[in-house]
What does this fold into?
Amino acid sequence: MRRAYSLAAALLLFELMMTAQVKQDVTTLEPGQVIERDLSGGQADFFRVTLKGGECADLVVEQRGVDVMIQVVDDANTVTSAFEAESRKFAQEQVVLVADTPQTFRIKIRPVWAKASAARYGVQFLRVRSTTEKDRLVWEAHKLDLDAIRFDYQSKIDEALEASQQAVAAAEKALGPDDAYVGELLYFLGFRKRTKGDVDSVARLDASVGI
It folds into this structure.
């Protein structure tokens, strides 16, 4: 389900600023492991996944009454990806980690809403496998999407548009034009084009995502 742009951007900006500032108790995840916990607004859990260069990790976060945001932080303490594609309280978030070089990723899981009631969620480390070109493209799309949001808050609309367009191109190449994530990225791109006043391009984008 598509996020409202203003909510997504505000949440991500706050998290981008705060993640590197807080000391964290981190639980190491291993392939095949499943962890279930309760979580409420204002709380967060932290996990660690270590990969060799060329490896990819598949994780699933099962939302059982709470809508969560998942952030990934790399060895350089940089937020590289954020996952919040599913806004329903009972649904799954699919998380894919890609390591071109040996990396230890930290994963932060927190409720989207600060006043969320306590509810249960589970995180499952499905597998480690060799990275494919599709994985790399989707990972790049997530990183470019975050870059675009950073540029938004720096009022750098041209840079935000370029990053947004590159994110769409990478995701479309990997997933095809009808994928839900591609639709979300197109929605954000349309928002930025509206901000710049590119009416003709916005009309074409609206048609492509069914608005």
Observations:
- Helices lie at 5-18, 133-153, 157-175, 180-196, 199-208.
- The chain has two domains: 25-131, 134-198.
